[in-house]
Amino acid sequence: MNPSDDLRDLEDVATNQPNIVFILSDDQDAKLNSLDYMPLLQKHLMSKGTHFQKHYCTVAWCCPSRVSLWTGKAAHNTNVTNVVPPFGGYPQFLDRHLNESWVPLWLQENGYNTYYTGKLMNYHTVDNYNNPYPSGFNGTDFLLDPGTYSYLNPIFQRNKDAPVNHTNEYNTDLVAKKGLGLIDEAVQGGQGRPFFVTIAPIAPHADFEIVYTEDHEYVRTINSPPVSAERHKDLFPDEIVPRTPNFNPLDKPSGVDFLAELEPLSDENITYNDHWHRQRLRSLQVIDELVEDVVQKLEKYGILDNTYIFYSSDNGYHISQHRLQPGKGCGWEEDINVPLIVRGPNIPAGGVVDFPTSHTDLAPTWFKVLGIPLREDFDGLPIPLTADEITEWEGSGKAKEHVQIEFWSDITGGEYNTPPAGISNPAPDNTYKGLRILGEYYSFYYSVWCSGSHQLYDMTTDPYQLNNLYQTASSEISSPPTNTTVTICNANYTLVKVTQRLDSLLFVLKTCTGKACSDPWNSLMPNTGINSLRQAMDPKYDSFFENMKRVGYERCEGGYIPDAEGEVYESGDAYQGGEKLRLARDPREWWNRA
What we know:
Elements: H1 10-15, E1 19-25, H2 39-46, E2 50-52, E3 55-56, H3 62-71, H4 75-78, H5 89-95, H6 103-109, E4 113-118, E5 139-143, E6 155-158, E7 164-165, H7 171-188, E8 195-200, E9 207-212, E10 218-224, H8 267-283, H9 285-301, E11 307-313, H10 333-336, E12 340-343, E13 351-353, E14 357-358, H11 362-369, H12 387-395, E15 402-407, E16 432-439, E17 442-449, E18 454-458, E19 485-488, E20 491-494, H13 495-509, H14 515-518, H15 520-524, H16 533-536, H17 542-546, E21 575-576, E22 579-580, H18 587-593
Parallel strand pairs: 1-8, 1-11, 2-13, 3-14, 4-5, 4-8
Antiparallel strand pairs: 2-12, 5-6, 6-7, 9-10, 11-12, 15-16, 16-17, 17-18, 19-20, 21-22
């Protein structure tokens, strides 16, 4: 049907509640300049909308990140922490009853029609797609394993139909075509209801061959660089991975644990990774074309000005940074900082924002712009989108400055690929809790690993995370201060004191729920007015932070198991008049202190 053939309800659609089109790429970087190679996205979204440059995923892996995005909850609250069972994938999503409580259902309950095409989440397969179907959609056309990541042999499953193999058809072109068709369906068959359409291509993810047994049990994944559409195969012949300071550092390794054991990449390996990078850029070109097609489709229907377009990715990506093979899963900025561009009603054109936001903020943001009351169990906050909201947020002194990062796995941040001969790809424990904190005059990344290792980077002076300051502090962060200092708002503080604050904040965040996730300082230091690291550095709080419990693990696990995660924050651990409230639980503690 032509848009001009059915104009009956278009005026009503254009003047009613706003619509949303969400384009979600897969593994797209924000730090390796991939957006620079998407001129149509720049033309239609970045120049007409706002770019949130400090947007973060909270877990740098496909399925856990997507589930957090669709629930507004941190991964430790969804307990979907891996890409395959038992700790993740579609089966774990079902086992945690999240199919009964997530964005599509909530939107339908509030009068929205919802549609989805492309990749939903890992381990959504030809065997389990209907047991049960994903809930909350008016129309779907999902990619299914084992064809999700196959660029030339994808498997799609439409609504309640049986899966269909598309042999020798290009995956992303099909997703784009189906996504545009769902917009047609939403406008022409939606009976005037507002809509939310998600288009989720796999680019620029690696090309995967998923191997199963005859009983359809997962065995392994064999992957290779992304595949481009034929029309884009010769683009960017001379592009190479940006040679940033953290690109394959030769003088010393970065990080801790397995990261500290990586050898420098060989010339052969670097050549291989440069090719991988070019293939990623080429694979993104169909998504770039899709952005323009979506804008033109909405414009043709007369609803562009009443539709928000969100563009993001599930997680970031590294290629040769810190001596790593192509992949994700680490706390490096390349892995956790992801694109977010928003165009829509009252969104500043050409805007650039630098305060931190995260994927757990997206569901609350959608609720706010669609006029739906926020849920109390959201771990995130609505992102300020209009010029007035942004100005108020930045000037209020209450802007969120933190993002909590977490990861569970026994695999590296590599792409689990089979590298060229002679190139190693170790598989150690990679489980950690992290904190990214960005204030007006300071910027830090802090993490605690299940092994007991720590990382601390002053990203104002070390944006490429090459100098782990924790090594120059003390192995015991409660030990006496050293002479090494960092600067916060023109004042110098010892590393020990700074780390005590960061660790205490992370101690709250690692098991936070609801408001404790979005306002952890208030949970940690109620009734003090403290809402930033700068304020918490006041020396009068030194004793409290010195005696605070510490982030730690009982053991390393490949998923979220509470008794492996060490001590947890309780309300009694909060600050009150220089003492922790938990002391009041046992009079003997007061007596001994006296």
